[in-house]
Design goal:
Order of helices and strands: HHHEEEEEE
Number of helices: 3
Distance between the termini: 131 Å
Strand order of the largest sheet: 1-4-5
Structural class: alpha+beta
Shape: elongated
Strand content: 15-25%
Number of strands: 6
Helix content: 55-70%
Largest sheet: 3 strands, antiparallel
Radius of gyration: 47 Å
């Protein structure tokens, strides 16, 4: 019997280990190829289900987009209709005042008494202001108030008649108004300097 060198023994052992690992790899490859066949079926069915989910998502998206588009058209139409009829209530409330003005003009043509015409115009003016007040219109009080650029528009400055009127509104050229506590029209004023 020949004594093998330890190095030869290691080489044979390495070769044996390698052969075993190759055989195991072959067995594993057979198992994998067999499982790949079944996983190919799984992959195909998984792919089909993903395609189906994608189609459902696309369908849902198209329906949602169509609903949103319909909503936009409907709300735009409603907005236009609202703007066209927004002043209907106010105009309807002003019609009796127009009738009063027509009656006052007819009455003024046949009378010589100017005081009764003045009184009639004053009553109509009060009725108009009351009607507009009910709709949220309020006159702005400006005279003797400190000048406020958020409420007033200075037309001109004049020397103040007294020191306490410096920087205050001395006269009103055009009255300012609030509508529901927001400035509708700025008051045009004369400011003391």
């Amino acid at each position: 019997m020949e004594n093998k060198h330890p190095e030869e023994h290691l080489d044979n052992k390495n070769i044996t280990d390698e052969l075993e690992s190759v055989n195991e790899a072959r067995k594993h490859a057979k198992n994998v190829s067999h499982s790949e066949d079944s996983s190919d079926d799984d992959a195909v069915s998984s792919e089909d289900s993903l395609k189906q989910e994608l189609e459902e998502a696309k369908d849902k998206y198209v329906r949602l987009y169509a609903e949103f588009d319909n909503y936009k058209r409907r709300s735009s139409k409603e907005r236009v209709e609202f703007l066209q009829t927004a002043g209907k209530d106010v105009i309807n409330d002003l019609l009796p005042i127009i009738d009063d003005f027509d009656r006052a003009i007819k009455a003024a043509e046949g009378t010589e008494n100017i005081d009764s015409v003045k009184e009639g115009i004053l009553l109509i003016s009060q009725k108009l202001k009351k009607t507009l007040e009910l709709k949220g219109l309020k006159p702005m009080e400006s005279i003797n108030q400190p000048f406020d650029a958020d409420l007033h528009e200075a037309v001109t400055k004049i020397p103040a008649p007294s020191d306490d009127l410096k920087g205050k509104v001395i006269d009103e050229v055009e009255k300012g108004y609030f509508l529901n506590d927001k400035v509708l029209r700025y008051a045009k004023v004369v400011v003391g300097s």
